[in-house]
Amino acid sequence: MPDVTLSVNGQDVTQQVEGRTLLVDMLRRGLGLTGTHVGCDTSQCGACMVLVDGAPVKACSILALEAEGTEVTTIEGIAAPDGTLSTVQQAFQDYHGLQCGFCTPGMVVSTTALLSENPKPSEAEIRHWLEGNFCRCTGYHNIVRAVQAASGQEPAGTKAVEAN
């Protein structure tokens, strides 16, 4: 079996993989990074979204060997090393941009990529960017609000959910 070497969340890793191993399987089974979810196995839902060299990629659509030499960021690498939530993660919490949480890692990773490319997206741009991420619980309203908040824009509707 061949080795694949890449950087995952800032750490260089080498893993022996079968040629048919998907990146999502290497991350989850090989490295124990289970925040990258497998939702559909058909590259439709976005639950397995990661950043590969800063670009959003569905980890179920790429072989681990294709990621050789790249920098991969999973949901586990989005927060600060001390565990402080990123601006995007905090906004998802504050504006309840989650419900069951299954799609949340992919949404957060996609939003992180969006704001890196377009720091002040319109509501239409947010909705377009997140088309590849399915949420079966929220109806997207609070997700869009969370993205608006993370971008420094005033979200439409009510204020952030207050912590008790």
UniProtKB/TrEMBL annotation:
PROSITE patterns: 2FE2S_FER_2. InterPro entries: 2Fe-2S-bd, 2Fe-2S-bd_dom_sf, 2Fe-2S_ferredoxin-like_sf, 2Fe-2S_ferredoxin-type, Beta-grasp_dom_sf, Diverse_Oxidoreductases. This is (2Fe-2S)-binding protein. Pfam families: Fer2, Fer2_2. Keywords: 2Fe-2S, Iron, Iron-sulfur, Metal-binding, Oxidoreductase. It comes from the Bacteria. Signal peptide: none annotated. GO terms for molecular function: 2 iron, 2 sulfur cluster binding; metal ion binding; oxidoreductase activity. The keyword ATP-binding does not apply. The keyword Ubl conjugation does not apply. The lineage of its organism: Bacteria, Pseudomonadati, Pseudomonadota, Alphaproteobacteria, Rhodobacterales. Residues 2-78 form the 2Fe-2S ferredoxin-type domain.
